[in-house]
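Input (structure):
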């Protein structure tokens, strides 16, 4: 029998500094009404110098462990999804390991842009099923404010900073009933030929620059609507479930219009779709776990409910996951 991966706890961290659309409009040629109309974003959080991906990731991980009633001794693997690591190496996951006082196991960073958390869930679940780990922290942590091009109003108004985390605990799988709890399935995809519609034009391995985010918004939007629809259908079909079985959709928070389209596709009433894009903007790999943590903390998502997660990002990468809480 394979162990299952119970989503035992979740947590989030947002930088203290909140920046409204009006504040951005003082330095960028934009307006609150354009940003709200096209994206649903009202504000975002921007990190202070000390709020790095490791710092925020550790804070979110601490909250997830506390929520699970677990301690750092229960952790034997840390997967940290980020496009904005503190350093090329050591992995930001290992800075988090040291900060939390985790004394065993292993950790690594995962690069899948905005889909990073879904990829991380998939790998964490596989590690548990392969019996290579029994307590996995999956973290998404990002400081996109450091890679935004402030001369490009088409992208710099869309993103924010933050971190979210979940703690996965190995559970016994001693029959079909248990196979229906925790992570039911994950579905991850990539199409490298679409790498140029959303990318960062530099890295520490490049001769001259760390790089800025570049996006063809319309192209990404077009792919997002189709790919995400496919990914949610795939997750339901893999588990023999119907749209009406889904209690909550926790989508990637890039654009309110994409989120609403996904909710309509699943025929879910708006109040069953978790939305944070209005307050967080797009926090890339942190967006799904931050939204999940918020809806669990305020009591909307309850134990036993079926939650569908989805995301799409640079790569192009996309994916979905079905979780019984
Ligand atoms: O997280 C990864 C996944 N990312 C996404 O899913 C993002 C997907 N894409 C989008 O969400 C949308 O494409 C955007 C929100 C990025 C852009 O919305 P859009 O409706 O596709 O606008 P657009 O880029 O076609 O621009 C429309 C107009 C242009 O002006 P003209 O050419 O019509 O005169 C832009 O110059 O809006 C202008 N514009 C702005 N105006 C005020 C672009 N950015 C801004 C801005 N403020 N910040």
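Output (sequence):
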């Amino acid at each position: 029998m394979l162990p299952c991966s119970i989503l035992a706890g979740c947590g989030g961290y947002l930088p203290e500094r909140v920046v409204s659309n009006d504040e951005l409009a003082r330095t960028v040629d934009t307006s609150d009404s354009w940003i709200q109309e096209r994206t649903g974003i009202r504000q975002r959080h921007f990190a202070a110098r000390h709020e790095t991906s490791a710092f925020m990731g550790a804070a979110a991980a601490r909250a997830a462990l506390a929520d699970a009633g677990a301690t750092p001794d229960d952790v034997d693997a840390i997967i940290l999804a980020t496009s904005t690591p503190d350093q090329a190496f050591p992995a930001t996951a290992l800075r988090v390991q040291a900060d939390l006082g985790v004394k065993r196991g292993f950790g690594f960073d995962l690069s899948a842009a905005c889909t990073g958390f879904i990829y991380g869930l998939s790998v964490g679940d596989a590690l548990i099923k392969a019996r290579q780990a029994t307590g996995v922290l999956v973290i998404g942590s990002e400081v996109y404010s450091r890679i935004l091009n402030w001369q490009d109003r088409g992208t710099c108004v869309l993103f924010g900073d933050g971190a979210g985390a979940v703690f996965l605990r190995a559970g016994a799988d001693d029959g079909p009933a248990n196979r229906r709890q925790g992570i039911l399935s994950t579905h991850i995809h990539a199409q490298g030929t679409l790498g140029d519609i959303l990318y960062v034009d530099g890295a520490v391995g490049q001769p001259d620059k760390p790089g800025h985010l570049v996006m063809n918004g319309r192209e990404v939007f077009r792919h997002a609507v189709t790919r995400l629809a496919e990914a949610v259908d795939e997750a339901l079909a893999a588990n023999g479930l119907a749209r009406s079985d889904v209690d909550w959709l926790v989508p990637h928070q890039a654009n309110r219009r994409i989120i609403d389209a996904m909710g309509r596709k699943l025929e879910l009433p708006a109040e069953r779709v978790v939305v944070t894009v209005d307050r967080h903007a797009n926090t890339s790999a942190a967006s799904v776990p931050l939204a999940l943590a918020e809806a669990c903390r305020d009591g909307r998502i309850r134990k036993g409910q079926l939650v569908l997660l989805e995301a799409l990002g640079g790569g192009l990468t996309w994916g979905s996951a079905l979780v019984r809480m």
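Notes: Residues 30, 34, 38-39, 114, 153-154, 157-158, 217-218, 220-221, 224, 254-255, 258, 282, 312-313 surround oxa(dethia)-CoA (CB under 6 Å). The chain has ten helices and 13 strands.
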